Amino acid sequence: MRNVVLGVTMWANDTIDFWFTVGSTYTYLTVSRLNEIETASGIRFRWRPFNARAIMQEMNNVPFATKPIKLAYMWRDVERRALKYGLPLSVPAPYPLKNFDLASRVAVLGVLEGWCPNYMQVSYRRWFVEGKEAGAEPNLSESLTEIGQDPNRVIVEANAETVGRAYDENTNEARRLKIFGSPTFVVDGELFWGDDRLDDAIAWRTNGTLQPA
């Protein structure tokens, strides 16, 4: 729910900002179940695509590419958690993404036009279940077609200056908030990093504390 006053969007107290980058592996666990979580909790999530890779590079943080032991752990961890949530999964999936920037710019356009959650869910499903790399073909066009979007139009508009500016603004806002990874949930300035902190973010939004109500 939101109210617009003097051209400024005021988000209601039942909303959590969900910051993400297409290319984050753990984000699969979040996007695949966020609709059900919204229904069960009454919390709404504002989808905020940003360039986590740029921020991580600024921090000299390359989490898995040069760390095969950590990479193997990550895939096993995602596999365990997907089983816990009842999510389909076939890992290892293509990683890291070659076209993560385009994939995230499409998500920005999806936010502007109202179809970002559908795009994210379908794109990640094709990536993590079918092994088709997000942001690349055939995943990109197939995902957009499945949700009723014209791939040719979307790809052109995703590369336009307007979308690039929105993408940069989101990334700068993430820097200001001290966000350093995806997924991150923000509640009244409090950061909760990682899919496994989603329940904490909901508790904080609901009760203002992690203590039982």
Task: Describe the overall structure.
The chain is an alpha+beta fold and 213 residues long. It has a single domain, classed as Glutaredoxin (3-Layer(aba) Sandwich), CATH 3.40.30. It is 50% helix and 13% strand. The strands form two sheets. It has a four-stranded mixed sheet, with helices on both faces. A hairpin with a 2-residue loop joins strand 1 and strand 2. Helix 5 packs across helix 9 and helix 6 packs across helix 7. The chain is globular. The N terminus is likely disordered.
What key phrases describe this protein's structure?
213 residues; alpha+beta; Glutaredoxin; 4-stranded mixed sheet; two-stranded antiparallel ribbon; 10 helices; globular; disordered N terminus
Determine the strand fraction and express it as a percent band. Answer: 5-15%
Strand order, largest beta sheet: 4-3-5-6
Count of beta strands = 6
Give the terminus-to-terminus CA distance: 24 Å
Count the helices. How many? 10
